[in-house]
Write the structure tokens for this entry.
Amino acid sequence: MQQAAAEMCTPAVCDSSDLLLGFVNTGPLGGSPDRLTGPEDLAAWLARTGLAGGTATGAVVTGADAVAARELRDAFVAIFRAHSGCEDGEAALPAAEDYLERIAPRYPLTPRLSADGVRLVPAQDGVLGGFGALFAAAADLAARGGWARLKMCKDPSCHTGFFDKTRNSSGLYCSTACSTRMAARAYRSRTKNAAVEGR
Ligand SMILES: [Zn+2]
């Protein structure tokens, strides 16, 4: 498994997955507050990621941008939940896919060609370029076969986004702590049911 993880986690895959996971993980997770509640939060996220075409400190970020960011985040979360087989993710999936299809033209990408390869980069800078970078990261991961490995932890008390590094892409939890906790919960539930049935 160590070997598979090393192969999968090439620097570019990590950059793309880190950007997307950092974005979905601004959400209210495991009791921590939402870190994308207003324009200041979005400006801080853009500055942290180095996005917005170097204008992070000067980019004008509005309340409407923050609303758009949260809608975009919800759509990514629905897809990553569906990747980890969460039923609520699958239920929300058609609306999320429709939403992404509808808004993608607002954030056009352009191919950047070099002798080393081709990559898609946002055609705009500022906030729109920041959102475009998320679409570019998704396209990059998909081209490398890593898209379906972006998941949300199935532990309902966690729901953290993570990159599934298992060899057969079967990971459901972000950490051993979460998988152990869920296994213990399932065990308690089984023994409780057995006790009820044995009455
Ligand atoms: Zn977790």
Observations:
- Residues 153, 155, 158, 160, 173-175, 178 surround zinc ion (CB under 6 Å).
- The longest strand covers residues 109-114.
- The helical segments are 2-8, 11-24, 39-49, 63-83, 87-103, 126-143, 176-197.
